[in-house]
């Protein structure tokens, strides 16, 4: 997989925890401007693979290629610096803080110099507002506390934050798992908007209908390997189930 | 926001919400309302309470507690607690006394006082942030260690200090505002600025609000925790100067009352002990309230024995009220 279409490829990734071989040489690729879905049963190795891509785990062996460049991420911050943002299931938001504060958490904009540097509140608020409104129709006010937001709004904030740093790739772990029907639809809109803006999205989901609705390409994982790939337009939910359970060979 | 509220059924629920809003108003502003109420009651009961002389005395007396409450507020915002704060102040006071006795002069002695206090904060920070010892246990330990050190170094005897600079600090004033309360006010403004206008302050709130999320966003919770205990101890060192100035001596006393009142002031100020909700003005008003309470009771001739009782009741009431704060 050295096609220039691929923004990210992971080749032969292995990762063990003690005696448990979570990844046994998994390989996947993500194309530019596409939503790539990663599906598989619990324990198939999806989370471990995603954690390798976002810098939480270091692969034991294997290579990750980003934009044609060999990369390894020692920390999540390094992965971020390379343009890979992850929206974790817990969203990593601080409920007591306002939306704009969460948006810039850890990367605050400041003005002034030296010990007199102060938060550039005005700029942070307007930037957060713009990014959020570009992505989401139901955007909350940036000055409201995250505690007061609905689940979908929180998800939108977390996604907009991830996308807001000129990221090339946004990884989403079960973005709608905890949401109702309406909120799910809103978040799916957000994800589509993100894809249309040129960001490559890696979507981890248990929801086949959602995967079929949203993704362009699907990777199926089983027992630590990526056992199959399909274009979403050329497969069906039944086939995916068969691939996941191993009833159908790749 | 309006969307969410519109989705609520506008029946019994909304009327309860309106009522809760009213209670929450009282809960949010417990400290200022309590202070005003106390002032009204005491000025009715005692004609000398609202005299300029007494106001000036109260403000001077409140200065130490104000500084300690600000110090405690930083720690409590991260969800921690500093039980060693008054013992740290004692260490600072003894540090000043010993240096003064050794003839180091005011400035150097003051620097040594603040440094020796911040050393305790450094130990607290290392134990809690790096050693992952529970804040309660760690600072309980340093409370005892610091008290012991102060006793050992001073040989258990108070050190008389007759520094002209401290005399100016304790007796000088601008109008009714004595220098101690002015110093405390400057520290309060600086603390507010740091907490609400700098990256560091935002990180303090983030770590207190949700440590896991803060770390996931690249904030070092370890550094933030180290910093808040260091800040608290440094402020306790400054409070030590005010204490020595007020007493006229550096005493190896435990000063438990200051410890309890510093936590009480923060609770009165509406800060949740679970962390994440930062307030600076609230704890300052809380400190003023506790001082006014003690002062008023003394003026009324109430036995000193009743003062801890009164303080305790006020704090417990305030803690009950905070349950009704807006989430």
Automatic annotation (TrEMBL), chain A:
PROSITE patterns given in the database record: ABC_TRANSPORTER_1, ABC_TRANSPORTER_2
Record domain ABC transporter: where: 8-248
CDD domains recorded: ABC_Carb_Monos_I
Alphabetical UniProt keywords: ATP-binding, Nucleotide-binding
GO MF: ATP binding; ATP hydrolysis activity
InterPro entries per the UniProt record, alphabetical: AAA+_ATPase (IPR003593), ABC_carbohydrate_import_ATPase (IPR050107), ABC_transporter-like_ATP-bd (IPR003439), ABC_transporter-like_CS (IPR017871), P-loop_NTPase (IPR027417)
PANTHER family: CARBOHYDRATE TRANSPORT ATP-BINDING PROTEIN MG119-RELATED, SUGAR ABC TRANSPORTER ATP-BINDING PROTEIN
Protein name: Sugar ABC transporter ATP-binding protein
From TrEMBL, chain B:
Protein location: Cell membrane
CDD domains reported in the protein's UniProt record: TM_PBP1_transp_AraH_like
InterPro entries: ABC_transp_permease
MF-aspect GO terms: transmembrane transporter activity
Membrane topology (UniProt): Multi-pass membrane protein
Residues that span the membrane, as ranges: 30-49, 55-76, 106-129, 136-156, 176-196, 227-249, 255-273, 280-299, 305-324
Keywords recorded for this protein, A-Z: Cell membrane, Membrane, Transmembrane, Transmembrane helix
Chief place where the protein resides: membrane
CC terms in the record's Gene Ontology section: plasma membrane
Protein known as: ABC transporter permease
């Amino acid at each position: 997989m050295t096609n220039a279409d691929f923004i990210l490829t992971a080749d032969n990734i292995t990762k063990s925890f003690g005696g448990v071989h979570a990844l046994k040489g998994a390989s996947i690729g993500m194309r530019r401007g596409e939503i790539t879905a990663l599906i598989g049963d619990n324990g198939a190795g999806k989370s471990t693979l995603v954690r390798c891509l976002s810098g939480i785990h270091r692969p034991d062996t294997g290579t990750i290629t980003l934009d044609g460049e060999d990369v390894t991420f020692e920390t999540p911050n390094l992965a971020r610096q390379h343009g890979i943002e992850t929206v974790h299931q817990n969203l990593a938001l601080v409920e007591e803080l306002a939306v704009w504060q969460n948006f810039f958490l850890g990367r605050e904009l400041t003005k002034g110099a030296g010990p007199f540097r102060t938060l550039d509140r005005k700029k942070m608020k307007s930037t957060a507002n713009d990014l959020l409104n570009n992505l989401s129709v139901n955007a909350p006010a940036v000055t409201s506390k995250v505690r007061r937001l609905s689940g979908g709004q929180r998800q939108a904030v977390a996604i907009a934050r991830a996308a807001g740093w000129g990221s090339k790739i946004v990884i989403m772990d079960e973005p709608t798992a905890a949401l109702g029907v309406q909120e799910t639809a809103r978040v799916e809109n957000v994800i589509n908007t993100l894809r249309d803006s040129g960001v490559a999205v890696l979507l981890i989901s248990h929801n086949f209908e959602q995967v079929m609705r949203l993704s362009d390409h699907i990777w199926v994982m089983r027992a630590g390997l990526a056992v199959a790939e399909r274009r979403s337009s050329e497969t069906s939910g039944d086939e995916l189930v068969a691939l996941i359970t191993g009833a159908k060979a790749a | 926001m309006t969307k969410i509220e519109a989705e609520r059924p506008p029946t019994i629920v909304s009327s309860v919400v309106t009522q809760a809003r009213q209670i929450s108003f009282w809960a949010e502003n417990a400290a200022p309302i309590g202070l005003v109420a106390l002032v009204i009651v005491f000025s009715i009961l005692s004609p000398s309470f609202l005299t300029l002389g007494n106001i000036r005395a109260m403000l001077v007396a409140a200065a130490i507690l104000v500084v300690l409450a600000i110090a405690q507020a930083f720690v409590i915002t991260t969800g921690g607690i500093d039980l060693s704060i008054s013992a740290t102040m004692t260490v600072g006071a003894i540090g000043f006394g010993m240096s003064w006795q050794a003839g180091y002069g005011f400035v150097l002695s003051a620097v040594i006082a603040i440094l020796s206090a911040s050393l305790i904060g450094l130990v607290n920070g290392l134990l809690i942030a790096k050693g992952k010892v529970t804040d309660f246990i760690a600072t309980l330990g340093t409370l005892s260690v610091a008290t012991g050190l102060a006793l050992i170094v001073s040989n258990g005897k108070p050190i008389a200090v007759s520094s002209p600079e401290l005399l100016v600090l304790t007796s000088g004033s601008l109008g009714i505002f004595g220098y101690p309360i002015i110093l405390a006010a400057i520290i309060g403004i600086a603390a507010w600025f740091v907490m609400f206008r700098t990256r560091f302050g935002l990180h303090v709130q983030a770590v207190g609000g949700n440590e896991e999320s803060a770390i996931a966003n690249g904030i070092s919770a370890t550094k933030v925790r180290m910093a808040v205990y260091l800040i608290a101890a440094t402020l306790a060192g400054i409070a030590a100067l005010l204490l020595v100035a007020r007493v006229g001596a550096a005493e190896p006393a435990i000063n438990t009352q200051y410890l309890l009142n510093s936590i009480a002031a923060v609770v009165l100020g509406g800060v949740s002990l679970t962390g994440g909700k930062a307030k600076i003005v609230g704890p300052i008003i809380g400190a003023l309230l506790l001082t006014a309470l003690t002062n008023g009771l003394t003026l009324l001739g109430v036995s000193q024995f009743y003062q801890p009782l009164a303080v305790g009741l006020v704090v417990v009431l305030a803690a009950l009220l905070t349950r009704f704060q807006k989430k």
